[in-house]
């Protein structure tokens, strides 16, 4: 518990996480409000279109949580005070993942609530398991994404490099994979963020041919993110801080 408290204090000791949280909430909710303001009706899935904006900012927040420690050298003092690097990194990741989960849920239900207020005539009721998954599922996706970002941050150690890799992969690389001759379309179906989208919507352009169902897609996404984190942990143990 002491490590968790320490990591929580370190995370919120700078302004960057606060600004990231504000942006991660304001961008998706504002985007949904803009859509609702200029629409006569809106579907439940449409209320969650803006979650991608929040996800990108959350990836940056999670990467900053680890890379800023390397930038300012505080990670050395942390490892001297607590030689068990695994415990330190587990605590840091847990704090960031829980924060990302909370951000994701507020983002999702905030967007849903804004749409419901602005367009009360639209059918936005949460009555089925699939409808709840589309909204409440945003939080777990954010949490696993934060774990991935911490893992990438442990591997690269530099904020610019980690953020670049995370954003380019999620926004560009997974879309370009489909252009690879013969295997591109099949390979794209197994990309982690494509799987995350399949979990949330289950009705995207690739959903009909997706190899896994929604919950299996979330499990796959989680396994990939944890796998990257474990690789980052092994590398951290093998090199100097």
UniProtKB/TrEMBL annotation:
The chain crosses the membrane at residues 18-37, 49-68, 89-115, 135-156, 163-181, 215-235. This is ABC transporter permease. Keywords: Membrane, Transmembrane, Transmembrane helix. The lineage of its organism: Bacteria, Bacillati, Actinomycetota, Actinomycetes, Pseudonocardiales.
């Amino acid at each position: 518990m002491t490590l968790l408290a320490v990591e929580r204090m370190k995370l919120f000791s700078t302004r960057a996480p606060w600004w990231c949280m504000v942006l991660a909430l304001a961008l998706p909710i504002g985007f949904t409000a803009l859509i609702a303001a200029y629409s006569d009706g809106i579907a439940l899935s449409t209320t969650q279109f803006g979650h991608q904006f929040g996800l990108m900012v959350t990836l940056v927040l999670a990467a900053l949580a680890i890379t800023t420690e390397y930038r300012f050298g505080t990670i050395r003092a942390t490892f001297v005070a607590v030689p068990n690097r695994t415990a330190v990194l587990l605590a840091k990741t847990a704090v960031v993942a829980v924060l990302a989960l909370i951000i994701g849920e507020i983002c999702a239900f905030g967007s849903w609530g804004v749409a419901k207020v602005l367009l009360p005539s639209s059918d936005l009721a949460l009555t089925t398991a699939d409808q709840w998954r589309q909204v409440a599922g945003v939080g777990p996706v954010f949490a696993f994404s934060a774990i991935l970002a911490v893992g990438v941050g442990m591997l690269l150690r530099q904020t610019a490099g980690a953020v670049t890799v995370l954003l380019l992969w999620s926004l560009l690389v997974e879309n370009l994979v489909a252009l690879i001759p013969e295997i591109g379309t099949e390979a794209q179906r197994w990309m982690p963020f494509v799987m995350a989208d399949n979990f949330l919507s289950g009705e995207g352009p690739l959903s009909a041919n997706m190899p896994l169902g929604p919950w299996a897609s979330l499990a796959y996404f989680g396994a990939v993110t944890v796998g990257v984190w474990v690789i980052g942990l092994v590398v951290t143990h093998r090199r100097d801080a």
